[in-house]
Design brief:
Layout lengths: L1 E2 L4 E2 L7 E5 L5 E5 L1 H32 L4 H11 L6 H16 L3 E4 L7 E4 L1 E4 L12 E4 L3 E6 L4 H10 L5 E5 L5 H16 L2 H8 L2 E5 L1 H13 L3 H15 L20
Parallel strand pairs: 9-10, 10-11
Antiparallel strand pairs: 1-2, 3-4, 5-6, 7-8, 8-9
Helix pairs in contact: 1-2, 1-8, 2-7, 3-7, 3-8, 5-6
């Protein structure tokens, strides 16, 4: 049973009574709830240890500051590799892009005589891998959409494009393949499926930009040079805590009812 508001969990023992017939023909009933709780506790402890190690590394990188950008770049580069957990990739991508665009401005206003300079702000719209049908990042004030993905699959890209009525989307892809290579692959898949050039073209025109791993690493390098390393690392820590339901003052003795997250 789950209490979402208080982030608490309980095991219903009545549903975990296992009946086993002995070779003598007699039935024995075993309550496997304690064993399940031990398994969940071990899982939570392992996840917490790994995550705390990740957070501690983030904090250490933050403290290094601009004096040792090489270590920071190496750490972030490691979190952007194809074999890294998808949630970590999305969090790190967001932190890097938020810092990158936060250095850029646009002039905007209701008329040409009343425009003002505004900083670009990137917002994260929900949890990673939530399957909520939403768009991952949204930029203000120009209304730009970003979608993070691990795959190069035309079906996935076109589905995302259809979500927003073919409004242009920037795809952040966990790959080292270039923008041109990714577009060629998607187009080839789409032509094989739809056969009609006009349909494929309408979708391809909605792919505003493709940002790959190399782009993210380059953007991060520029952010570090501009003195915003701490902002990126702090954002990674903040978003990671939200993603993994982590609290600094969580009860270390919480066991299955620990606030660390959903087992």
């Amino acid at each position: 049973m789950r209490d979402v508001e208080n982030q608490r969990y309980w095991v219903q023992e009545d549903l975990l009574q296992v009946s086993i017939r002995h070779k003598t023909g007699k039935d024995y009933v075993y309550n496997i709830a304690p064993a399940i709780m031990d398994i969940v506790d071990a899982y939570v402890a392992t996840k917490r240890a790994a995550f705390q190690g990740f957070l501690e590394t983030c904090r250490q990188i933050t403290e290094l500051g601009i004096d040792e950008p090489g270590k920071a770049t190496a750490f972030v580069t490691q979190q952007l590799q194809p074999n890294v957990d998808a949630r970590v990739f999305e969090i790190v991508s967001y932190a890097v892009l938020k810092a990158k665009y936060g250095k850029e401005t646009v002039w905007i206003g209701p008329s040409k005589d009343s425009v003002e300079e505004e900083v670009l702000i990137l917002y994260k719209t929900g949890r990673t891998n939530a399957n909520d049908g939403g768009i991952d990042f949204v930029m203000k004030p120009i209304g730009r959409f970003f979608q993070v993905t691990e795959t190069i699959d035309a079906n996935k890209y076109f589905l995302d494009i259809d979500k927003v009525q073919r409004f242009p989307i920037t795809f952040v892809v966990k790959t080292t393949e270039s923008d041109a290579e990714i577009r060629r692959t998607i187009r080839a898949q789409a032509i094989a499926k739809y056969k009609i050039e006009a349909v494929v073209n309408s979708y391809m025109e909605a792919v505003e930009e493709v940002i790959n791993v190399n782009d993210l690493i380059r953007h991060f390098g520029e952010v570090v040079k501009s003195g915003h390393l701490r902002a990126v690392m702090e954002e990674i820590v903040t978003q990671s805590k939200v993603e993994f339901n982590y609290s600094d003052d969580e009860d270390e003795e919480g066991g299955v009812e620990d606030a660390f997250g959903d087992p």
